[in-house]
UniProtKB/TrEMBL annotation:
<feature type="domain" description="PD-(D/E)XK endonuclease-like">
    <location>
        <begin position="22"/>
        <end position="266"/>
    </location>
</feature>
<dbReference type="InterPro" id="IPR011604">
    <property type="entry name" value="PDDEXK-like_dom_sf"/>
</dbReference>
<keyword id="KW-0347">Helicase</keyword>
<keyword id="KW-0540">Nuclease</keyword>
<keyword id="KW-0067">ATP-binding</keyword>
<feature type="compositionally biased region" description="Polar residues">
    <location>
        <begin position="1"/>
        <end position="11"/>
    </location>
</feature>
<dbReference type="Pfam" id="PF12705">
    <property type="entry name" value="PDDEXK_1"/>
</dbReference>
<keyword id="KW-0234">DNA repair</keyword>
<dbReference type="InterPro" id="IPR038726">
    <property type="entry name" value="PDDEXK_AddAB-type"/>
</dbReference>
<dbReference type="GO" id="GO:0004527">
    <property type="term" value="F:exonuclease activity"/>
</dbReference>
<protein>
    <submittedName>
        <fullName>RecB family exonuclease</fullName>
    </submittedName>
</protein>
<dbReference type="InterPro" id="IPR011335">
    <property type="entry name" value="Restrct_endonuc-II-like"/>
</dbReference>
<keyword id="KW-0378">Hydrolase</keyword>
<keyword id="KW-0227">DNA damage</keyword>
<feature type="region of interest" description="Disordered">
    <location>
        <begin position="1"/>
        <end position="23"/>
    </location>
</feature>
<keyword id="KW-0547">Nucleotide-binding</keyword>
<keyword id="KW-0269">Exonuclease</keyword>
């Protein structure tokens, strides 16, 4: 899934607020820092857009639209031609993205980087030979424990023999081998959801790193997904316990350097806003009782 500008699992319109669900990104937030999780999932504090995240969204949008074209038309030139219109659309959806740049030169360089990532994509895959079964698919499923999971899958390919491949584009570089398990967290999350939804374990999970042209693949098995489900249930119990106690402690790390909420964080001398009255109650709807 894309590092989206907005986490779609939590962008509910107030008038029709959906039941809360665990998404891979919010689960990872909690594991990184419970206070960060609170700011995003419960307070839903606004965050300024970052050039890296918006570039990721832009490239994902182009790759999604590319498959609207007939197979023979899915060329590198066509992908580059989609870049400007998709950038226009992004700015209409979120006007503050234009403020990320100090001037036209910086914007031009940033767009050139996005174009370079698209060029890299064509070195890794030939989209005219693919017919994805799904693109940017919203997947949602409730585990037998009553816990609701939700996520967006970049692409799903189905082979003639029915084997499913789940593909996720990353605009960054592939991780060091010792961090690969962390990278596969999101993919196992999708594999578990798809298995529980359709009764078949996806044959392959594939992460496509456009930042350095590497691909990370993993073929999951049932035992691993059973263990992953157990881990997720344990994680939810920890989240729910912290939420009921209203004690979202900061967990400082080197990742604080990228946190948008330092001014609300006690680690940096800030003070969190008052916890929204209905925020915890809504979070607890993750698990049906
Ligand atoms: S600054 Fe660090 S400790 Fe504070 S909320 Fe952000 S990630 Fe957590």
């Amino acid at each position: 899934m894309t590092d989206t500008v907005v986490d779609s699992s939590l962008q509910d319109a107030p008038e029709e607020r959906r039941r809360a669900a665990i998404s891979p990104s919010r689960a990872k937030d909690f594991l990184q820092c419970p206070l960060l999780f609170r700011f995003r999932a419960i307070d839903r504090l606004p965050e300024p857009p970052s050039q890296a995240a918006v570039k990721g969204s832009l490239v994902h949008n182009v790759l999604e639209r590319l498959f609207d074209l007939p197979a023979a038309g899915r060329t590198e030139d066509a992908a580059h031609g989609l870049l400007d219109p998709q950038w226009e659309t992004l700015q209409e959806e979120r006007p503050d993205v234009a403020e990320m740049f100090t001037g036209p030169e910086e914007l031009t360089a940033w767009l050139a980087e996005a174009r370079g990532l698209l060029t890299q994509y064509f070195r890794m895959e030939n989209p005219s030979r693919l017919e994805p079964a799904e693109r940017e698919a919203r997947v949602e499923t409730e585990l037998s424990s009553g816990i609701l999971l939700r996520g967006f899958v970049d692409r799903m390919d189905v082979a003639p023999n029915g084997a499913v491949r789940v593909v996720d584009y990353k605009t960054g570089k592939s991780p060091h081998p010792s961090y690969q398990d962390d990278a596969l967290f999101q993919m196992r999350f999708y594999a578990l959801m798809l298995w529980r939804l359709h009764g078949t374990v996806p044959a392959r999970l594939q992460l496509v790193y456009l930042g350095n042209g590497r691909t990370l693949t993993h073929d999951p098995v049932e035992e691993e997904l059973v263990a992953f489900e157990r881990d997720l249930e344990g994680l939810w119990q920890r989240m729910a316990g912290v939420a009921r106690a209203e004690k979202f402690a900061p967990r400082p790390s080197r990742l604080c350097a990228w946190c948008s909420f330092q001014r609300y964080c006690p680690t940096f001398g800030g003070e969190p806003p008052e916890l929204p009255a209905d925020g915890v109650a809504h979070l607890l709807t993750v698990q049906a009782v």
